[in-house]
Amino acid sequence: MLNLKSKSLQELIDVVTWITDNRYTSKELKLFDDVKQLYELQLSKLEYLRFHDDLDEFLKRTAYFEEIFGKKSWHYYISNVKGKGQIGHTNQYMTHWFYPYKGKFHGQMVKALINFANAKGNDIVLDPFLGSGTTLIESTLLGLNGVGIEINPALAIVSQIKLDALRIDYEDLAEIDLSKMYKIFEYFYNLKIDANIKPKVEENLTAKELLNTLWENYFPSSFIHDYPFEVRNLLLLIYLHALSDFTYLQGTKKSKKIQEFFIENFKDYLKTINGCCKVIRKLGIELGDYRVLIGSALDIPLKDDSVKAIVTSPPYSIALDYIKNDEHLLRYLGVDVKELRSHMIGLKGKGKERIRIYEIDLKKSIEEMYRRRNVQNSKARWVGCNCLGGYKYRRS
């Protein structure tokens, strides 16, 4: 009798043989060594079923396979641009780690879900609860068109900057005189914005438009304005990251002065941007387009039947207070916290009433997503969700 406790699944069976229905073995197709969870193996199988007749495309798009007939997959190189807190090849690579947002889901999993939905070419990938931009970063790296909707203006800004950072030339950042770093820090440190930015969801303002408004009307003119728009925004995000580190690590052994976090993060961001540039050029990745809209999942401003894939992580109801987690970010950017809370799904009401409203709003958001999915030329449509920690795939 086998002692299952002493053996890994890979030691008991050839997992690749199971995934490919006996067509290939692990000598021909190799999974990443850290692909061990059952849901990861199932997603690997779904990826294979999608791309088994085009191994070149499989090589470019797979999330869970490290090698295809001896060639390293694109995800191998992409996920080797490592960020803080990265676990294997699953998360925090490329610009995913920029700003420590609580409540992310794994980029590797998101990529696999997009693949399973068979989004390609000019297809639109939608995330109506965008958060810090994970879905759009993955769709962009796959060369697809992404639309993200986020009701929190501050997080919409964070997502936009993380996406734009994929297009920044390392040389533009490397030219910044390090002797100016303290002056750059002081500029953002002394910035004061009144709390008058409200989530006017009916306007469908884009995050890029809001950033333009901030630079034109709220951020005083300085030498920083001479930098390219995307570089200015990245410097802002580095400060916001430092502000978050300073806020959460106060009173711990990792506590530092906020300017120390700023300088440290600038150097780390610089390394990541350098890595992003190198891998995008090496692989010849053609980045997809994207739009980050400040709006509500209760009223998705897209045409019916226009979306190919929907990959999202709905709010965790009472499990997370998204405003409390990022209150330092919201107040710094002048977002009206009280007004925002009145609009956010999962944060309306109190006690049992809060749960009731949450269920109503979530059902409404699913109805909005359902109407936007494109049913042409396909036998099935799926929505991938991370609901209270459980990943579900549901036929629409």
Any overview of this molecule?
By secondary structure, the protein is of the alpha/beta class. It is 44% helix and 10% strand. The protein contains 17 helices and 9 strands. Strands 6-5-4-7-8-9 form a 6-stranded mixed β-sheet, with helices on one face. Strands 1-2-3 form a 3-stranded antiparallel β-sheet. A hairpin with a 2-residue loop joins β2 and β3. The protein is globular, with a radius of gyration of 22 Å. Mean pLDDT is 88; it is low at 377-383 and 386-396.
Spatial arrangement of strands, main beta sheet: 6-5-4-7-8-9
The biggest beta sheet, please? 6 strands, mixed
Backbone CA Rg: 22 Å
Strand content: 5-15%
Q: In one word, what is the shape? A: globular
- Contiguous low-pLDDT stretches (5 residues minimum) are 377-383, 386-396
Could you give the count of β-strands? 9
Helix content: 40-55%
Give the helix tally. Answer: 17
Q: Average pLDDT, to the nearest integer?
A: 88
Structural class: alpha/beta
Q: First CA to last CA: what distance?
A: 44 Å
Count of domain modules: 1
Instruction: Summarize the helix and strand pattern as letters.
Output: HHEHHEEHHEHEHHHHHHEEHHHHEE
